[in-house]
């Protein structure tokens, strides 16, 4: 008997680059709806995931400065409203399976927004720290003529 032929199955090499994420603040406005629809279409084009976010403001009269306690009913109502808005956008675009939803409190959203506008964002987790910094702009590409 001859030895078995080697397998011709090739395992695909995973990309080093992670799939992109699109973070969209969604509210009841027409602009929020248009932003979500655009993000769904862009996610389909780029094979990305859309995170639709509803941002909650802290209730007034908070006895502890800098903290907030959002009632569970408020969070649940915000999530239900957000998921209804996402379903409406999915029905309009026909693009499904690319969305996640989250209800964030204002300080978390402000930290992400600050990182977008140039501030460093340090993510600290169990056993590691990472810094998200804005990318440095690339210098313009200079073309050199052949034979120069």
Automatic annotation (TrEMBL):
InterPro entries: Rossmann-like_a/b/a_fold (IPR014729), UspA (IPR006016). Residues 57-76 are annotated as: Disordered. Gene3D superfamilies: HUPs. Residues 23-133 form the UspA domain. It holds the Pfam family Usp. It comes from the Bacteria. This is Universal stress protein. The lineage of its organism: Bacteria, Bacillati, Actinomycetota, Actinomycetes, Geodermatophilales.
């Amino acid at each position: 008997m001859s030895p078995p032929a080697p397998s011709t199955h090739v395992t695909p090499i995973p990309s080093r680059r992670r799939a992109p994420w699109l973070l969209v603040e969604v509210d009841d406005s027409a602009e929020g709806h248009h932003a979500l629809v655009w993000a769904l279409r862009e996610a389909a084009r780029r094979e990305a995931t859309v995170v639709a976010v509803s941002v909650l403001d802290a209730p007034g009269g908070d006895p502890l400065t800098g903290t907030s306690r959002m009632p569970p009913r408020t969070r649940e109502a915000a999530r239900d409203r957000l998921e209804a808005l996402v379903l409406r956008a999915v029905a309009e675009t026909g693009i499904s399976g690319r969305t996640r939803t989250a209800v964030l409190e204002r300080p978390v959203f402000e930290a992400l927004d600050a990182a977008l506008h140039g501030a460093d964002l340090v993510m600290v987790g169990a056993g590691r720290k990472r810094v998200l910094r804005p990318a440095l702009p690339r210098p313009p590409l200079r073309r050199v003529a052949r034979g120069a």
